[in-house]
Amino acid sequence: MLPLNEEMLAYFREMADVLVEHCAISRAEAVARINATYGAGERAAWGVDIMGHELPSYWAYGTYYGPDPQGRVPVGDPAADVDIDFSAHPVWPAPPKDSPFWTLEE
After folding, report:
1. Could you give the CA distance from residue 75 to residue 39 in angstroms, rounded to a whole number?
2. Cα atoms in the Cβ-side hemisphere of radius 13 Å centred on 5
3. How far apart are CA 106 and CA 65, in angstroms?
4. pTM of the model
5. What are residue 19's phi and psi, to 5 degrees?
6. What is the full DSSP assignment across 24-45?
7. Would you say 92 and 67 are in contact if contact means Cβ atoms under 8 Å apart?
8. Is the Cβ–Cβ distance between 104 and 27 less than 8 Å?
9. CB burial string 82-96: b at 16+ within 10 A, e below
10. Span 22-45, mean pLDDT?
């Protein structure tokens, strides 16, 4: 996992808040999902300069929801998501519990 500056760490924390509040998962699972998706490689290096062009929910929902039958994924914008049925979206599986992505206790 790449080291993060304070601004990027705060952004990822906001993403975890979205997952905990809107997807009803534990903070440990939210962090594991974010770590698995963004914790290594090019995406982690993008930083707030690139990722910050979207709400944290935009990136957070992509770690949890797969596309609905119309190919849409929620983006966290109430106007854009108004006609999305969240129950129609498949949920990606969480990373395996024995993976290094789980950095918090449940």
Report:
1. 20
2. 6
3. 21
4. 0.85
5. -65, -40
6. ---HHHHHHHHHHHHSSSHHHH
7. no
8. yes
9. eebeeeebeeeebbe
10. 85
Contact 88, 68 (CB under 8 A): yes
* Both structure tokens of 72: 């849409």
Report the C-alpha gap between 18 and 14 in whole angstroms: 6
Nearest alpha carbon to residue 92 among 78, 73, 75: 73
Give backbone dihedrals phi and psi of 49, rounded to 5 degrees, phi first.
Answer: -55, -40
Token reading at 33: 């999902």
Residue in the block written with tokens 């705060």: 10
3-state helix, strand, coil in the chain (%, to 5): 55, 0, 45
Residues 8-29 pLDDT 10s: 889 899 999 999 999 999 999 9
